[in-house]
Design brief:
Two copies of one chain form a homodimer. In chain A, 36% of the residues lie in helices and 25% in strands. By secondary structure, chain A is an alpha/beta fold. In chain A, helix 7 crosses helix 8. At the A-B interface, helix 1, helix 2, helix 6, strand 12 and helix 12 of A face helix 1, helix 2, helix 6, strand 12 and helix 12 of B. Strand 12 of chain A pairs antiparallel with strand 12 of chain B.
Chain lengths: 436, 436
């Protein structure tokens, strides 16, 4: 039997502890599957003496993750510290630089430094594996990098943040406003005390940037992602969506277009009958459109210690088996440069909700502004939203428009004109529609 | 750049031609991803002169697949002939025996000879890859073998035959009987002229046997699978399922039980709200329950030239990249022996439809027969099935029972007693319920 694979693990939060427990529990099975013994030899975390419900006494304690990453008696560094800079970055660079493979769950680190880390890993001929960084337990990194290696990917989209999907699901099923559902998510531990990273869409954007690089062979570029969060979504939008056969999800979407690879994160109308619309609560899902396989959907737990540990340990098993591919599927030097496509060029259908002052000529003016820009309307709904617990303010009535495919630029210009006409009192709500 | 990977491909049906076209189309991308050029150097099929809409003139033609498999100028043999014996088997054995890797889509061959072929591949230190043999374009083989390597799998179940799912979907949505939907499937090319291999469940059983070996580390054993087809399913069953919150799917289920690994293929009641119940038409889906990841569902096209070619080419790309794992995830010699569990030991809920003669004491007798065997009932529905286009015969009324968890043995004993009592005129319909 070959030498054991010796691991140094940094970060003993929920995921780190779950990884230690899973490696213990599956020790024999993993030896059977990989042909090697997998041994954690040293660990590192901020506080040595915090009670963790796990016996660390047999493991060497190292105070500094960078020291652990460079320790001569480890083959593989598992980084579960988190954060795009600081100790996590330094430790990963140290590990790769000293010829050790790295497994990480750190989406921020990859989103910001994935390209340079991949270069370093390839130079050193070691693995840099990050299945756990996207969609928790769903093995979408492996599926894109290996399972669909024969495909040209056309689009990848998904529900990549359980917190947002939980909140939107609760708003819809319980008819409770955003703030109440956010507070509930915080109480249940699904949302942080400062929830902005999740609900503003940045967590989804980091994950999408990783998927984009894998799917399209482009250099990872988190700054190229257009990001909007879910805070503007109201019960009126959810009710209108339901009535029109849609559901609202925070999606990350990366898509091949004539201008290049578009990357965007925003609340999205999806057909209620689609696979992605069925995903409720904290579950994640990713759908991949590709030329050969057509459409593939993966759904499963997107977070949580145990599911994330499943992904970390799968990466460890690959390394133990000697499986090593370029981190982003092809050599970092051959990744195409990222496209930064202005959202103004986005093409698709739109949902628009307007608070229209109920006086003669309002609807005619709105319809004219749309027609002037060749925006054709699939449906118009104007009626009191009785079921939605929204009180009409003054004499305004909600009007919901669904457009056929058009561009963001035309929609924005038309709505600017509608607002200038003075028939609306609130900022128009605009939600992009994603077709299956 | 390393040497090109030289392929000999046998079988030029729909899948074979799709593989040739996909390799052509993605030639440059595959070189980028694998670091090697992938070249088909020779092909073989039954009829050299059949028009195929593909220019074979640059490829060497070999008449005998076994000769092609042993040709000294190929590194990898791609077997797309089909069939569990004969030329496919001989050619694969020849290729492996002469130290060449094999990629195959041949589920029958694997179901019957997978273990000995895996042994041979391991002895020769070559790859035996078969992603395309199960669920077409869905990379479930890779997900089980690598993506969930850190998990203990508890259950794998899925819709693995698009023909059956198409027929059941059409029966439900169009309210048309089995025979009519089967004829439609044949007209559309989804079912063979002799459809028995699909509709009797054997195709699903072969695929399930492969998944079972990968998921549970057992020696593949197609004979251990209990198999029932969909021919007995009536519109009355579909209507009753809908009313009770279920949908009927032909599932393959492999499950860890106290007695061992249970493998069964049969029409199954699944909760209408479950992910698997949403899968309609020819789409396939597989759900995996495992200790760390909990529940993961993969859905996509289960057949068709293009989707199957996606899987074949992914295997080819893995081999080009030098990725090689034991075919069934761990060495063939260490696979556990298969469990052949009598279905009588199966535990679960049951749907039972009886044609009950409408006279005093009938329901009491049935309830008593159940109670005698400690079978408790979740629901009883007795009413004319008006919506189901089924004419009541004579004075019989359909009675539908849903039981709580019990065993197959108790259900069969209770129903034997019910039939002996003489209150029923038809063979009872029994459909097992699968819980999420």
């Amino acid at each position: 039997m070959p030498e054991p694979l010796r691991i140094g693990l940094a970060g003993l939060g929920t995921v780190g502890l779950s990884v230690l427990k899973l490696l213990d529990r599956q020790s024999q099975a993993l030896r059977g599957r990989t042909g090697r013994s997998i041994e954690v030899v040293a660990v590192c975390a901020r506080d040595r003496h915090r009670p963790r419900g796990y016996d660390l006494s047999k493991l060497r304690w190292v105070d500094d993750p960078v020291d652990l990453a460079g320790a001569p008696d480890i083959d593989l560094f598992v980084e579960l510290i988190g954060g795009g800079e600081g100790p996590a970055r330094q430790a990963v660079e140290r590990a790769l630089g000293s010829g050790k493979s790295v497994v990480t769950a750190n989406k921020a680190l990859l989103a910001h430094h994935g390209l340079s880390l991949a270069r370093l890993a390839e130079e050193q001929k070691v693995a840099l594996a990050f299945e756990a960084s996207v969609a928790g337990g769903i093995p979408v990194v492996k599926v894109l990098r290996e399972g669909l290696a024969g495909n040209q990917i056309e689009r990848v989209y998904g529900i990549l943040n359980g917190t947002c999907n939980f909140i939107l699901s609760r708003m819809e099923t319980e008819q409770l406003p955003f703030e109440v559902c956010l507070a509930e998510a915080q109480r249940l531990g699904y949302a942080e005390a400062d929830p902005s990273f999740d609900i503003d869409g940045f967590d989804t954007a980091h994950k999408l940037a990783i998927l984009t690089s894998l799917a399209f062979g482009t250099a990872i570029d988190a700054a190229a992602v257009h990001v909007e969060g879910i805070q503007s979504i109201t019960l009126a939008d959810l009710a209108a969506a339901a009535e029109l056969g849609y559901r609202i999800k925070l999606l990350g979407v990366a898509q091949r277009t004539a201008s290049g690879i578009e990357q965007r994160v925003h609340p999205t109308m999806v057909a209620r009958s689609s696979a992605i619309a069925q995903i409720m609560g904290v579950t994640n899902a990713v759908t991949i459109d590709a030329d050969a396989v057509h459409e593939l959907t993966l759904a499963g737990p997107g977070a949580g210690g145990s599911a994330t540990a499943s992904a970390v340990v799968a990466d460890i098993a690959d390394i133990a088996r000697g499986i090593r591919t370029a981190p982003f599927g092809k050599p970092a030097a051959s990744l195409d440069s990222s496209d930064r496509i202005p959202l103004q060029r986005h093409e698709g259908g739109y949902y628009i909700r307007l608070a229209v002052q109920d006086r003669p000529g309002a609807m005619a003016a709105i319809a004219t502004r749309m027609a002037e820009r060749q925006i054709s309307l699939e449906s118009i709904v104007q009626k009191p939203q009785t079921g939605a617990r929204v009180r009409p303010v003054g004499v305004e009535v909600p009007v919901v428009l669904i457009t056929h495919a058009t561009t963001e630029a035309l929609i924005r210009a038309a709505l600017d004109a509608v607002v200038s006409d003075g028939y609306t009192s609130e900022k128009p709500q605009v939600i992009r529609i994603e077709r299956e």
